[in-house]
TrEMBL record:
Keywords: Cytoplasm, Endonuclease, Hydrolase, Manganese, Metal-binding, Nuclease. Belongs to the RNase HII family. Manganese or magnesium. Binds 1 divalent metal ion per monomer in the absence of substrate. May bind a second metal ion after substrate binding. It comes from the Bacteria. This is Ribonuclease. The lineage of its organism: Bacteria, Thermotogati, Deinococcota, Deinococci, Deinococcales. It comes from Deinococcus terrestris. GO terms for cellular component: cytoplasm; ribonuclease H2 complex. CDD domains: RNase_HII_bacteria_HII_like. Endonuclease that specifically degrades the RNA of RNA-DNA hybrids. Residues 20-208 form the RNase H type-2 domain.
Amino acid sequence: MPSVTPDWSFEREHWRRGYFRVAGVDEAGRGAWAGPVTVAAVILPGSAQEYPFRDSKQLSATQREAFAAEVRRVAVAWAVEHAWPDEIERLNILGATHAAAARALARLNPAPQALVTDYLRLRTPLPLLAPPKADALSYSVAAASLLAKTERDRVMTELDREHPGYGFAAHKGYGAPAHRAALERLGVSPVHRRGYAPIARLLQAGLFND
């Protein structure tokens, strides 16, 4: 199945209304059992030129790193923020994702005038388009997906060194069989999301590794 090529369709809807600084917003790690959920916000130049950026899930790790560097080079503004497991436990995953998005958007300079997100209906006074699959359809959201994914992968590789044995560098905290086996062997670490059902069951069984 061929990959989808992003374009400027959603940004143009904002441009037609006079909003030219459009930030794309996307997250990585929302479904993982460990580590942060990571949100990026990116404003690209509003020149309607073509970019090689794609949804990060369509690319290899090497391609993602190269394209993420290009996003940082060409962006008018960009920011990445994390919500860690304690915030996820306090706010729930959706609330924590919204909080990280708000922090990322607040760091953009110049500030955005409108937003496009990947089906993330943020509570914001700014004009917002939140279509599904926007990371594959919008250049701005694809750019944000690249920054969120590469930054979260970097964090999970660091956590793998700090908490060896779980395999975070390989599975990035998702519920892979190797992750399940490591949890059974080592117990729950401080960077696991304790409100998630598979983790909560292990804690109830007394399997923790603080």
